[in-house]
Design brief:
Layout (H helix, E strand, L loop, with lengths): L1 H18 L8 H4 L2 H22 L3 H25 L7 E4 L25 H10 L2 H12 L11 H33 L2 E6 L2 E6 L8 E4 L31 E5 L11 E5 L6 E5 L16 E4 L8 H4 L10 H28 L5 H11 L7 H18 L8 E2 L11 E6 L6 E11 L4 E2 L4 H18 L16 H14 L4 E4 L23 E4 L3 H12 L3 E5 L3 E5 L5 E10 L7 E8 L5 E7 L1 H4 L9 H10 L2 E11 L1 H16 L4 H12 L4 E12 L3 H10 L3 E5 L4 H10 L8 E4 L6 H12 L4 E6 H21 L2 E5 L3 H15 L2 E5 L10 E5 L5 H6 L2 E3 L4 H41 L11 H7 L4 H5 L9 H6 L4 H5 L6 H25 L4 H23 L5 H17 L9 H4 L2 H28 L3 H6 L1
Parallel strand pairs: 10-22, 10-26, 22-25, 23-24, 24-25, 26-27, 27-28
Antiparallel strand pairs: 1-5, 2-3, 2-4, 4-8, 5-6, 6-7, 9-28, 11-12, 11-21, 13-14, 15-16, 16-17, 17-18, 18-19, 19-20, 20-21
């Protein structure tokens, strides 16, 4: 049996290849049978073996290069074994018999952990020592084990390094433990499995391919998709009979696409064998919620082969621009360190073992490169994240990536979705157009009266009237046209009415009887699209109500209370490619078969009969910001339908090219359809979208709106939301299909200045294909860009392009960024965005919160990190300058100035708290930052941390280090200990005063930190008698000398700062004064 199926597969494969040579190579394994692969492999392996056997000449062969051949073969074999990825193949799954599976399928366990017990420490260390800073310190610390290079105590180098690594390892361990707990929770969820002996509970991780799992009703989701069971198994009397039948599912190989599935269900023990086609509507993907009833499903894919896991990319560690800039500066510091050491050895005159002295100088000045930089910045980022989440003005905001909060302060491009981000995704029916007459919200009562009349007339003449289709064609009255249009809208959809029972549990009505109470109060509509719900709610408001629906029929209630039943013969669901959905129904009373279809005007204009109004009216509605749908119908005879059904079922059973064949059969019906009406639905804007977009535009952020909507709708929303300001021109990019057209259109666009660009996805594709660089360059100069008719993959591609071409920070905001390459992806978690929200770096609940997130938190995070980074560098530079002065005065001796605990204490308890308190600093009050968004423009220039500001800090460090050291040397009595005491105390005071000088807005914690550090230093003097002369410290001489040196090192800087604020104040100080 298996053999037969394989050979059949092979034949299909060959025929398919002949039919379509250009088929995608990725799908090849699906077409070739397993047998074909086996043969290929065996031939492949036997060939080299045959050659070897011919060449074999014993020892002579081995010596003449045979050994090399063997070694390479072994290593290749090992590499293949380590790297080998399992080929994914189509599979045959027997119902309830996991043991019958030919292949070994992956375990159904979720694993999101980065490391395991063995790889944790090596992995974390690798991630740390990847950074130049940490690697450098590791080398320096290890060098202390060499006696000739030893400078002072081991702990002066190992303690800071150990502290940094401990903080990192603990943080990673906590994250890893959380991931482990989440995984364990998911893997130990219990499911009901059906076995021969009845129901048993199994853990999620123990589910196998072929198991029968029972999924019960759950509450929760609002977004419904209708799913259909395999009809052949519905007729079995009891659950246990599933094990007595001989049936299997043949399913395609695991793949990424969650919107398609191809398979067949075969029952072999019936006569004849039953074959049933399976498609996406027969599947439940992982973590589906069942809204009503109970489902028994056979497991097809598990673990790594499920769609959800295959679509999850490994999260990238995002690195912010500020981190990259600081990394560049550390490299510059390293060069300075090498240069300084070489200068010292040169001044020494290269005497003795100079290379050893060079290395000792490198170690002495190693404090130029601050090891605590990364720890300070990481702790700062965690603090910013906490502040964002605790901000009461933007409730519900979640920071999921703590490594990039400073990026929020440097955005140049903001890419946004429309539906659910700028708009509420709540639809309201606004307009019905019949070609000659149009109805708006104020004239809906006319439609209602027409519907009431037409149904009451029908009721009177029922029985004596012929079916309308056989009547001669005359121009229909407005009333009958409205009746047809409303009926079509009420029937052509995927909406299900649900009745909440009095106890609050939703119970679907099983059978609708004429006298059953379909009370309107407890009916709600469920559908996967809010547009469809809006249409059905509208038909209810004009008198035609959808009261019940199951797989095979639906019932409508007329204004007079009569129930009309329609049998559903076929449904063609909406897809993003076809942009339309259709349904074939049979009227129970008359037996008429009608094919209804509704869809986007682009798709429908070629399907409906010729008319002169559709295109124009679609444009008019779109300009009002309405989403349009075209509704059409076609009456079918019984013979036409039977012919269609047989061809359709045959197409659905084909294994290869199923979608194309099915589409071709459906298209044979979609010809010369009768155009019924055009509907317009409005999607309302979210609260405060206009002021927020205006604020972002004033802040110099260029906004791109990428949407799947029509060009006119997108343009209209862009105007109404103030994405494009009132006085701005809009350039609509004409549709282009060839290189020449794109060239001409780009030239036309180049001549326009300061105008917003509107372009469709198709034209964009052509431009990017031939003129990528030119197009991006022109588009980047526009104040706003609107891309309409964009697919999610196109959206992701645009983000990538912007980052690649401009090198600027981009941020994507919305729910449909399937693959956010953007540095920041804030998502408004509206009705449809829960999954999207989990994948975001920042999640916000409303679009208006983006303003405060960028203007206030983005600004503060960037400014604070820049100040913190430079201050930590200054702390290292000043002590290295003092060491350089000290060494040059004492005949270039490579002897440390401060030893042991003094060095460790300087970088930690004496200065750590005041320096870190810079994360509480702010230059502008939040209200100011929001009132004057123009202040944000300065941030994008990156002036807070640049080579210029860095050089200023270097000069400050050199000046202060020189003053502190020369001052101490000039004023010291006779003991070296006194130099150390005076200079070190002055150094600590200088650092504390410099923090005070850098702060722009005081916070009570900053004051506490300053006095706490000073207190720690004074208290520790009592214990540092091996470094200081305690008797000398308590004298007045010591105090005045320290004070004098500190004043000389800090006062000039205070004076300079005062003069700068007076004569060249920064832009924000002009506002605050």
């Amino acid at each position: 049996k298996a053999q037969y199926r394989k050979s059949r597969g092979e034949g299909n494969g060959l025929r398919y290849q002949v039919e379509d040579e250009s088929s995608h190579l990725d799908e090849m394994p699906l077409m070739m049978s397993e047998e074909g692969f086996e043969n290929d492999e065996s031939d492949y392996h036997t060939l080299p073996r045959a050659r070897i056997s011919q060449r074999r000449r014993g020892l002579e062969w081995f010596i003449c290069g045979g050994w090399k051949f063997l070694c390479t073969s072994c290593s290749d074999w090992l590499i293949n074994i380590c790297r080998r990825k399992k080929d994914l193949k189509a599979r045959t799954v027997w119902l309830g018999c996991p043991e019958k599976c030919e292949e070994k399928y992956p375990k159904n366990a979720i694993k999101n952990q980065k490391y395991n017990i063995f790889t944790f420490i090596p992995g974390v260390l690798y991630e740390q020592f990847k950074f130049f800073l940490n690697l450098y310190f590791l080398v320096v610390s290890c060098s202390q084990f060499v006696p000739a290079l030893k400078i002072g105590y081991l702990y002066t180098y190992w303690a800071p390094l150990g502290f940094v690594l401990t903080v990192t390892v603990v943080r990673e361990a906590v994250d890893e433990f959380r991931r482990y707990k989440r995984d364990k929770e998911m893997n130990s969820q219990l499911y009901s499995k059906l076995t021969v002996r009845g129901k048993v509970q199994v853990k999620s991780s123990d589910i196998q391919v072929g198991d029968l799992i029972i999924v019960e009703k759950l509450d929760g989701e609002t977004d419904w998709k209708l799913k259909v069971a395999v009809s052949c198994t519905q007729r079995l009397p009891a659950l246990g009979d599933l094990f007595s039948i001989n049936a299997y599912v043949y399913a395609q190989k695991p793949q990424l696409d969650i919107h398609s599935f191809e398979g067949t269900f075969t029952r072999e023990d019936s006569d004849p064998a039953v074959h049933e086609s399976l498609s996406i509507e027969n599947t439940l993907w992982a973590s589906t919620v069942v809204a009503s009833g109970t489902v028994i499903g056979v497991v097809i894919y598990t673990g790594k082969e499920t769609r959800s896991v295959m679509n999850t990319s490994n999260p990238k560690n995002k690195v912010g621009l500020l981190d990259l800039e600081l990394n560049q500066l550390t490299k510059a510091l390293f060069l300075a360190l090498v240069a300084l050491s070489v200068v010292m050895v040169t001044l020494q005159g290269f005497v003795g073992p100079w290379y050893r002295n060079l290395f000792r100088f490198l170690l002495l000045f190693s404090y130029i490169i601050p090891i605590s930089l990364r720890v300070n910045l990481d702790m700062g980022k965690a603090a910013y994240g906490w502040m964002i989440m605790k901000d009461d003005n933007i409730p519900g905001t979640v920071v999921r990536t703590s490594t990039i909060p400073e990026e929020l302060g440097r955005l140049v491009y903001l890419l946004t979705d429309k539906t659910g981000t700028l708009t509420q995704n709540e639809m309201i029916f606004k307009r019905l157009h019949l070609g000659t007459v149009s109805y708006g919200t104020d004239t809906m009562d006319e439609i209602q009266s027409h519907i009431i009349n037409s149904y009451s007339q029908q009721q009177c003449s029922r029985g004596g009237m012929k079916p309308q289709s056989s009547a001669p064609k005359v121009r229909k009255s407005v009333s009958s046209r409205i009746h047809e249009a409303v009926k079509a809208i009420a029937l052509c959809h995927n909406v299900t009415p649900v009745y909440e029972s009095r106890a609050g549990v939703s119970a679907e009505t099983e059978y609708a009887e004429v006298d059953q109470d379909f009370s309107d109060e407890n009916r709600t509509y469920q559908a996967s699209s809010p547009d469809e719900v809006a249409l059905v709610q509208w038909t209810e408001s004009v008198g035609l109500t959808l009261v019940n629906r199951d797989l095979t029929s639906m019932q409508l209630k007329t204004p007079g209370g009569h129930i009309l039943t329609y049998y559903i013969l076929q449904i063609f669901p909406f897809t993003s490619e076809s942009k339309r959905m259709g349904i074939i129904v049979r009227d129970e009373s008359s037996g008429e078969i009608t094919f209804y279809m509704k869809g986007a005007d682009v798709a429908m204009s070629t399907i409906v009969q010729y008319n002169d109004w559709l295109e124009e009216e679609c444009g008019n509605m779109a300009r009002e910001g309405l989403r349009t749908l075209v509704v059409a119908k076609k009456s079918l005879t019984e013979e036409q339908y039977q012919d269609f059904e047989s061809r359709y079922n045959q197409a659905k059973l084909s294994i290869h090219d199923r979608n194309l064949k099915v589409a071709a059969v459906v298209e044979s019906l979609e010809r010369e359809m009768e155009l019924l009406c055009l509907t317009g639905v409005e999607d309302q804007l979210q609260a405060d979208v206009r002021p927020t977009l205006e604020m972002l535009r004033n802040a110099g952020i260029k906004i791109w709106m990428l949407t799947g909507d029509k060009l006119e709708t997108a343009t209209c929303i862009a105007k109404s939301s103030h994405l494009v300001s009132r006085n701005q021109d809009i350039h609509i990019f004409r549709p282009v299909a060839t290189r020449g057209e794109a060239h001409l259109e780009l030239n036309a666009f180049r001549r326009k200045h300061d105008c917003a660009l509107v372009i469709s996805g198709d034209s964009l594709e052509v431009c990017l294909k031939y003129y990528e660089h030119e197009f991006v360059e022109l588009a980047c100069q526009c104040p706003a860009v609107v891309c309409c008719r964009c697919s999610p993959t196109q959206k992701a591609h645009i983000v990538k392009l912007l980052q690649h071409h401009t090198g600027k920070r981009t941020c994507a905001i919305g729910n449909s960024w399937h693959n956010p390459h953007s540095k920041i992806c804030s998502k408004c978690n509206q009705q449809e965005g829960k999954q999207a929200s989990l994948a975001a770096d920042f999640s916000i609940t409303q679009f208006k919160h983006i303003g405060r997130l960028l203007m206030v938190h983005g600004r503060n995070s960037y400014k604070r990190s820049a100040a913190l980074g430079q201050f930590v560098m200054h702390r290292g530079l000043i002590i290295s300058t003092m060491q350089a002065v000290f060494s040059s005065v004492f005949y270039f001796a490579s002897v440390p100035l401060y030893q042991g605990f003094l060095m460790v204490g300087y970088a930690t308890i004496y200065t750590m708290f005041p320096v870190f308190s810079l994360v509480l600093d702010q230059d502008v009050k939040p209200e100011m930052a929001l009132l004057y968004p123009e202040l944000y423009k300065d941030l994008t220039k990156g002036r807070s941390l640049s080579f210029k500001t860095f050089l200023i800090w270097v000069l400050i460090s050199i000046y202060q280090g020189g003053i502190l050291m020369y001052g101490a040397l000039l004023l010291f009595e006779s003991e070296f200990v006194h130099v150390v005491a005076i200079s070190f105390t002055a150094l600590i005071l200088t650092e504390l005063l410099m923090v005070a000088l850098t702060i722009r807005t005081w916070h009570w914690l900053m004051v506490v930190a300053e006095f706490l550090s000073l207190g720690c230093y004074v208290a520790s003097l009592a214990f540092l008698n091996e470094y200081f002369d305690v008797a000398f410290i308590t004298t007045v001489t010591f105090l005045w000398k320290v004070s004098a040196i500190t004043v000389v090192s800090c006062l000039p800087l205070y004076i300079l700062k005062y003069l700068k604020r007076k004569f060249s104040p920064p832009s924000y100080s002009k506002l605050t004064s």
